[in-house]
Amino acid sequence: MKNIIEIENINKIYDGGFQALKEINLSIKEGEIFALLGPNGAGKTTLISTICGIVTPTNGSIKVNGYDIEKDYRQTRSLIGLVPQELTTDAFEPVWSTVSFSRGLFGKKPNPEYLEKILKSLSLWDKKDNQLMTLSGGMKRRVLIAKALSHEPKILFLDEPTAGVDVELRKDMWNIVRDLRKSGVTIILTTHYIEEAEEMADRIGVINNGEIILVENKTELMQKLGKKQLSLELTEKLDTIPETLKEYDLELKDDGKELIYTYDTTQERTGITTMLNAIGNCKIKFKDLNTKQSSLEEIFVELVKK
Ligand SMILES: Nc1ncnc2c1ncn2[C@@H]1O[C@H](COP(=O)(O)OP(=O)(O)OP(=O)(O)O)[C@@H](O)[C@H]1O
Ligand SMILES: [Mg+2]
User: Are residues 182 and 91 in the same domain?
Assistant: First the structure.
């Protein structure tokens, strides 16, 4: 698959001397959903704003569909739609004119059928004549998406599209994003909700302190860094782990009623059989057992801690 965005050695030092991006190298593939994860202040918005031409990089180069974002900014901007993190809308403006105006900004000919399709897909059609101030927070967010799509971009940036959005609407958003991808739009989203990245993304990038610390296919990431846990629900309460079981690195939880064994699924031998035998030898009985794969959240917390 071709790279639709190519970022090379990007640094951003803001006026005042703070370095928000450090030697960023990253390629985005055409048609993928890429999730950028990172804690507050990591540099997600700065990176997105740089690609969109809102923030000027201190050095480095960014190409969008082969065009340079500085030299060929007209081309690159028209390829990009941005849903910003902050809700800024003109309160008195009706939905329809806001969205048509956005399209006009890109010098695109009016296309009411296209805008109607977008507003319908975002369940905003019945609100098209409403002033923005009369919409709910979630609807305002959808208007921002409609605005970002108004000029038919090939690439859509969503900067925390679901911050403060309820579960129901979040799922709607996910469906909207999936439909967009089906129509060929490349999507880059930032999020704090790791389940969102887990649910949506093809690839995940983690940024911390202005540095990209990892880029990986989602499934591989979860397999590679994920650990599995086997938990044994004990029949009788255990006060301490017997000396002979010390080598298995077991954890005692739930007031001594649960034993937890952590193992690496990528290893040839997980050690489960020997561990269970050793437990049997100690006459420890259990009434139930289950396994659990570590979530992306746990992986993420580990990564950022390091
Ligand atoms: N205009 C600016 N001038 C100076 N420093 C800035 C400016 N904008 C952002 N920063 C700093 O750059 C760093 C990265 O900010 P950025 O908004 O990119 O983070 P983020 O990853 O989007 O965080 P969040 O998850 O909170 O949205 C922060 O330390 C921030 O204070
Ligand atoms: Mg941000």
Answer: yes
List CB contacts of 228: < 8 A, sequence separation 6 or more: 262, 263, 264, 265, 270, 291, 292, 293, 294
288 confidence band (pLDDT: 50, 70, 90) = very high
As for ligand 1, residues whose beta carbon falls within 6 Å of it are 14, 16, 18, 20, 38, 40-46, 85
Residues of the domain holding 278? 227-305
One domain, residues 284 and 246: yes
Which of the listed residues 223, 241, 265 is the one where a domain comes to its end? Answer: 223
What distance in Å separates the CA atoms of residue 5 and residue 134, rounded to the nearest whole number? 37
The answer on 276 and 197 residing in a single domain is no
Instruction: Please compute the mean of the pLDDT values over residues 117-143 and round it to a whole number.
Output: 91
Distance (angstroms) between ligand 1 centre and the Cα of 30 equals 27
Judged by its nearest atom, the ligand closest to the C-alpha of residue 47 is: 1
